[in-house]
Design goal:
By secondary structure, the protein is an alpha+beta fold. It is about 20% helix and about 40% strand. The protein has a single domain, classed as Nucleoside Triphosphate Pyrophosphohydrolase. Strands 1, 2, 3, 4, 5, 6 and 7 form a seven-stranded mixed beta sheet that branches.
């Protein structure tokens, strides 16, 4: 029996050498973990539409969507996530509207934060790009 699938999109947003991460609310699934901001894609919605909606709802800001950085699938207990990360830019200063906290964090400090497994793959890729002498 296959697990129910959920498509989730996230925004990798960099400003002045720091990356925007948000902390999930205590009552959310995977509570209190950190993530690149984003959310579930609704039926009939494109990735871009979902990112714009979720960043407006959760951070009170509009987003410009760039290229796709990463697409992975990850199984959690009871469901599977198709997780896609896009490079993005925000207009204005994000605030915690529907997240517990918002932080700008330097790439070298991202390891100090606990991320859900699917999100951790994007963090690992980002840190790999930052430390790869050939890239």
């Amino acid at each position: 029996m296959s697990l129910p699938r959920v498509r989730v999109v996230a925004a990798e947003i960099e400003r002045d050498g720091a990356f925007l991460i948000t902390q999930r609310r205590a009552e959310a699934a995977l509570p209190n973990l950190w993530e690149f901001p984003g959310g579930r894609v609704r039926v009939g919605e494109s990735d871009a539409e979902a990112l714009k909606r979720t960043l407006r709802d959760r951070l009170g800001t509009d987003v410009q969507i760039g290229h796709k950085l990463l697409a992975i699938s990850h199984d959690y207990d009871g469901y599977s996530v198709d997780f896609v990360v896009y490079r993005c830019a925000v207009a204005g200063e994000p605030k915690s509207a529907r997240v517990q906290e918002v932080r700008w964090v330097a790439a070298e400090d991202l390891d100090d934060y606990d991320f859900p497994s699917a999100d951790q793959a994007s963090v690992d890729q980002l840190l790999g790009e930052r430390t790869d002498p050939g890239g």
